[in-house]
Amino acid sequence: VTRELDDIVCLYTGTLQEMDRKKDQEFIPLLQTSGESGLLLWDDYVSQSFSPFTMSPTAQLKPNPKRFDDTYAHVIAAQIKNDSKENPLNVIFCSDIDMISDWFFMERNRGNLDIAFDNVTFVLNAVDALAGEETFIDLRSRRASLRTLQYVENQVRELRRKLNEEEKDADKIMNSRLDDARSELQKEIDAVQKRDDLDPRSKAQLLKQKEEQLNRRLELDEQELEQEKNSRIRKAGLEMKREIRRVENFVRMWAYIAPAVLPICFGLLFLGLRQLSESQSITPDRRRR
Questions:
Q1: Burial code of 186-196, b = ≥16 C-beta within 10 A, e = fewer?
Q2: pLDDT tens across 59-107, in order?
Q3: Strands, DSSP E only, in the chain?
Q4: Mean pLDDT throughout 140-155?
Q5: What domain count does the chain have?
Q6: How far apart are CA 198 and CA 185, in angstroms?
Q7: Fewest C-beta atoms under 10 Å: which of 14, 150, 169, 241?
Q8: Which span out of 37-51, 114-128, 196-210, 215-229 was modeled with the highest average pLDDT?
Q9: pLDDT of residue 145 exceeding 70
């Protein structure tokens, strides 16, 4: 179903996990992510709001949710089969219903993008496989493919991994410093609560003022740490982009130089052989002494 497919887009996908299956039941992953992927909770991905036009709750995408790789390959679609006569089963389950929206059919017909998504092909192959008609699956899945530069892809993958680690380290540092700040603020509040020279009313007012003061200080510290973290991540991102451009320029330079090296070498070789042949064909009396 997916053996010859290259590019499939899953916008709001979930993940599948193989549980304890019955006897003679087979779980075949069809679509899965690489190890450079992770999971996001729905509340981390969107923010709830209210639309005055439809008079109903709506969800808005957060501009830049925190993403972390968990180094696991998550299964997105799988085929579940059971060939037993008692409980026959042949199901293809996909955890993203949006992968077969009308837009993919319209874009398949128009062809306006530089990349051809295989979402429609995947669904058609799945229908044929479930119907037992696999004649057109290989034919439908064929497409012209271009070879990629493995060296560039490996370098970019390594740089993205380093950027992800940098983001994780920045978050850990920020959370650690915030925990230390909260601990120090809590100590100041506890010190006020332990004072015996204040009556309950004065102590409550002082605690309220102290909490407001400390909360403002904590908010400022949090904003400062957030800016510092974003600056560190932005700097690492810019460094990654510069490194990617350097790798691409290096490969591009060798793409220009390498094809010319062999003709130049052959040209020098033939020139040397020609001069050697001419020098040997001249009689010794005519040679310059």
A1: eeeeeeeeeee
A2: 788 877 777 777 788 899 999 888 888 878 889 998 888 888 888 888 8
A3: 25-32, 46-51, 56-61, 75-82, 89-94
A4: 70
A5: 2
A6: 20
A7: 150
A8: 114-128
A9: no
Question: Residue 249 has which token pair?
Answer: 């320029």
163 in a domain, yes or no? yes
DSSP class of 16? B
Q: Which residue(s) pair with 266 in the sheet?
A: none
**24 with 149: CB under 8 angstroms?**
no
User: Quick one: pLDDT at residue 284?
Assistant: 64
Least confident piece of the model among 59-63, 197-201, 226-230, 250-254: 197-201
The DSSP 8-state label assigned to residue 54 in this structure reads T
Indicate if 126 and 173 belong to the same structural domain.
no
Residue 174 identity (one-letter amino acid): M
State which amino acid sits at residue 157.
R
Structure tokens at 23: 């006897």
DSSP state of 21: P
Residues counted in the chain? 289
Residue 288 has a pLDDT of 58
Q: Give the tokens for residue 40.
A: 């996001």
State the CB neighbour count (10 A cutoff) for residue 219.
10
What would the DSSP string read from start to end of 152-192? HHHHHHHHHHHHHHHHHHHHHHHHHHHHHHHHHHHHHHHHH
Q: Are residues 77 and 167 in the same domain?
A: no
- The CA distances from residue 3 to 93, 199, 265, in Å, are 17, 77, 44
In a domain, 275, yes or no: no
**Is residue 10 in a domain?**
yes
In a domain, 280, yes or no: no
